[in-house]
Amino acid sequence: MIGGVVGGILFGIIGSLLCLVLFFGIGFILNMLIKTTWFPLWLFVIVVIPLGIWQLWQDDLTVTENIQSLLVSDTILIVAGGVGAYLSGWAIRALRRGGYKMF
């Protein structure tokens, strides 16, 4: 029982850090190449979240039951990815204000 709880907590911490760093890195590179500050955040909201929900969707449940079936760990990973996408836009914006030119 304790191993399951500790494993769940470790999964939440490590998984959220990985999602945050992954989406920050992808967003930072996209921001440099496309030169739009908030594009990765909107891409995350429009593409990644619906794909995640579609993958976890169960046809035999109603909409509310499907939303309620999302685990806390799923929600933590989604929020961490969104925070990483937001932070990439914030970092690029701060760098551009500081005079840093990309490409």
Commentary on this structure:
By secondary structure, the chain is mainly alpha-helical. The chain has one domain. The chain has four helices and no strands. Helix 1 packs parallel to helix 4 and helix 2 (39-56) runs antiparallel to helix 4. The longest helix is centred in the N-terminal third of the chain and has 33 residues, at 2-34. The model has no long low-confidence stretch (mean pLDDT 82).
Structure at a glance:
The protein is an all-alpha fold. The chain is built from four helices and no strands.
Number of domains: 1
Instruction: Work out the helicity level.
Output: over 70%
Number of strands: 0
Radius of gyration: 17 Å
Q: How much β-strand is present in the residues?
A: under 5%
Alpha-carbon distance between the two ends? 53 Å
Main β-sheet: number of strands, strand sense, barrel status? Answer: none
H/E element sequence: HHHH
List the main descriptive attributes of the protein structure presented here.
103 residues; 4 helices; mainly alpha; 81% helix; single chain
Blueprint (SSEs and pairs):
Blueprint: H1 2-34, H2 39-56, H3 63-68, H4 72-97
Helix pairs in contact: 1-4, 2-4
